[in-house]
Specification:
454 residues, mainly alpha, Helicase, Ruva Protein, domain 3, Cyclin A, domain 1, 3 domains, 1% strand, elongated, TBC12 protein, small GTPase binding, Rab_GAP_TBC_domain, GTPase activator activity
Length: 454
């Protein structure tokens, strides 16, 4: 108490007339003290020039110091006795404003109710379509897969999206098993991965293993990267995080593949593809589909970082980009914005990281039907969907937007844009355009080869 006694005595009293807040000090007392109701009434009469007539006792509120419970009370209730009464015009205006507020609230409520009903109707219709489609897939298509997979009816049904209950089976059949991998082979490579993990845990660092004689070309060393990437896989789902039900399963599939294909090893993005397969297939079947899927030419080119092949894919993509979206194509060209800036991430994860999971699965459905062409068609569909927005952006904002797409994207809007994309240029389809680019590249290599020049 007595520590600052001298200082406090020297302090001057607060200036009474200083308005507002005082920095690091007390708020000075206000000059205007609360006025009595009679004084307020007299001032009102002097200002307006008319006498205040209090309402009859029956109409006056018994509780003068009332607290309105809602905006309705503020609009419709009479003022307290210590305040001037509303004029007739003001009362009518307040009543009209209140009626308008009620009418607007009812309109919004009716509109929201209609919207909810529409959403429920669409959901029920979608569930009915899925249920009926599931019966067709289970009873008709899957038992006669080879004979029916290419028919027009099946392709149209396929485009609408596969029922979740048969999705994994259809993906597995569509991807195939050209590598002839068996569940027993998966177990062999899984046990090898576990041995490598054990050796990593017993050794202080990965560099020591390389010093011990591990080959540089042997990418089994990338096994350690898997642990870091699994926690980043669909973090919002929590099922692939440490302690989650699918954490060890995803770890096993990725580890087994790294030992199965040491020439490829583990590359960032693989975890998303493996995770989607695990959600729809059993462990061994997921590994078989994963290995065969990554053995496709497009995926192999990207995951092995084959620059020449990747450039061919980008060039083919730009051919159809210019054909379908010429304005946006020129806009991207003006900023020197090349497809690799946004396509690499889309292709590496097959859109499973860029799109909502249910929509990504729908993209996978048609990708399994149409092959790599649909991956680039989907990319053009995304650009078409947001064309108007992208045309207003500069380089940095376009790159940021395409790297992280809006979360409210719907399958109906996206697939209507994808359907509008024509994968044909000068009567050439995707495969023909890509093949011609490959031939041009080979001829260019021959013309520039030292042997021919000598």
């Amino acid at each position: 108490r007595n520590f600052f006694t001298k200082r406090t005595k020297e302090l001057k009293p607060a200036v009474q007339s200083a308005p507002g807040w005082k920095l690091f000090g007390k708020v000075p007392p206000r000059e205007n003290l609360p006025k009595d109701s009679k004084i307020i009434q007299q001032e009102y009469e002097a200002r307006t020039g008319r006498m205040y007539k209090p309402p009859p006792p029956s109409a006056r509120r018994k509780n003068v110091a009332f607290e309105p419970l809602s905006t309705t009370a503020l609009i419709l209730e009479d003022r307290p006795a210590n305040l001037p009464a509303k004029s007739v015009e003001e009362a009518l205006r307040h009543r009209q404003e209140y009626d308008e507020m009620v009418a607007e609230a009812k309109k919004r409520e009716i509109k929201e109710a209609h919207k909810r009903k529409k959403i429920m109707r669409e959901r029920f219709k979608q569930e009915e379509n899925i249920a009926s489609a599931m019966v067709i897939w289970v009873n008709e298509i899957l038992p006669n897969w080879e004979g029916m997979r290419a028919t027009r009816r099946v392709r149209e049904l396929w485009w609408q999206g596969l029922p979740p209950s048969v999705r994994g089976k259809v993906w597995s059949l569509a991807v195939g098993n050209e590598l002839n991998i068996t569940p027993e082979l998966y177990e062999i490579f899984l046990s090898r991965a576990k041995e490598r993990w054990k050796s990593f845990s017993e050794t202080n660092s990965e560099s020591e293993i390389e010093d011990a004689g591990a080959s540089v070309a042997d990418r089994e060393a990338s096994l350690e990267l898997i642990k870091l990437d699994i926690s980043r896989t669909f973090p919002s789902l929590y099922i692939f995080q440490k302690g989650g039900p699918y954490h060890d399963l995803l770890h096993s599939v990725l580890g087994a593949y790294t030992c199965y294909r040491p020439d490829v090893g583990y590359v960032q993005g693989m975890s998303f593809i493996a995770a989607v397969l695990i959600l729809n297939l059993e462990e061994a079947d997921a590994f078989i589909a994963f290995a065969n899927l990554l053995n496709k030419p497009c995926q192999l080119a990207f995951f092995r970082v084959d620059h020449s092949m990747m450039l061919k894919y980008f060039a083919a993509f730009e051919v159809f980009f210019e054909e379908n979206l010429p304005k946006l194509f020129l806009h991207f060209k003006s900023y020197s914005l090349t497809p690799d800036i946004y396509l690499i991430d889309w292709i590496f994860t097959l859109y499973s990281k860029s799109l909502p999971l249910d929509l990504a699965c729908r993209v996978w459905d048609v990708f399994c039907r149409d092959g790599e062409e649909f991956l680039f068609r989907t990319g053009l569909g995304i650009l078409r969907l947001y064309e108007d927005i992208l045309l207003q952006m500069d380089f940095i904002h376009i790159a940021q937007f395409l790297t992280k797409l809006p979360e409210d994207i719907t399958s109906e809007k996206l697939f209507s844009c994808i359907a509008a994309i024509q994968m044909q240029n000068s009567n050439k389809k995707w495969a023909q355009v890509f093949t011609s680019l490959m031939k041009d590249n080979k001829e260019g290599d021959k013309n520039h080869s030292p042997a021919l020049k000598s």
